[in-house]
Write a structure and sequence with these properties.
By secondary structure, this protein is an alpha/beta fold. The chain has a single domain (2-281), classed as Metallo-beta-lactamase, Chain A (4-Layer Sandwich). Helices cover 22% and strands 29% of the residues. The strands form three sheets. It has a seven-stranded mixed sheet with strand order 8-5-4-3-2-1-18. A seven-stranded mixed sheet has the order 9-10-13-14-15-16-17, covered by helices on one side. A four-stranded antiparallel sheet has the order 7-6-11-12, with no helix packed on it. Strand 11 (153-157) and strand 12 (160-163) form a beta hairpin. The termini are close together.
Amino acid sequence: MEIVTLVENTVYKKDLKAEHGLSFLIKIDDYKILFDVGQTGLILENAKLLKKNLKDVDFVILSHGHYDHTGGLEKFLEVNQTAKIIMKKNALQQKYSSSTGNIREIGFKLRNRYKNYPNEFLFLEKNYTLNENIQIVTDIGEYTNFEKIKQNLFIKDGEDFIMDKFQDELFLTIVKDNKLNIITGCSHNGIINIIKTAIDNTKINNINLILGGMHLTGIKLNEKSLQDKNNEKIKKTIEELKKINIDRIYTNHCTGIDGFTKLKNSIKDKVFYSYTGSKIKI
């Protein structure tokens, strides 16, 4: 299995480009999976430079309905008319953020236009199995009392803005060599909730890899009370991660550099940053 970070907030390799967004290209068995598509379609440029063909991608999995994970889909669909697009129906909800002080839309741009494309869109209501070792998990349990805190993120219900409970979020599990690999987008429901859901679903406690964003940053939170609660969340998340049998944590994107630094200082040699262009072989 090979996982390539096609786009992420940071880049170090020559000619590749970064953006506020996330996309992983996963090659395993006979499947080629694109997990999230970034913000703008930059994945196409980076894939070409990395000599990765996106025309034969089998599945696109969208972790949730935010623009920085779904915005590149339109450009992708221009070059691939056969991949199945997998997401939860709630990802079509109108989504907003007040992180800048003003309400702005941050949702799925193709919400009203996805039917214009020949690709099959699968809107999941329950877990979806690609094969006996690969599963898309849609129902994230609530195992902690500190991860689901108020964020500056909303959905629109009629004319009202209500707090987003992230019912559109899903994640991917891959079992290889009797170990569990977990790929997530932003972990809005909490990375510990996601990990424990994965363990319960697979009955596997040995985790080889956790990859993706973990929302462990508080820099953009514009209320001190939110910052304090988020700092407590980060502290408790790290405490819980230490209790779980994990070989490697590759994180990026919404984990934030501050969140990554705290993870690295606490868990040390198990923590890595998955920047644009980086590759993981399993």
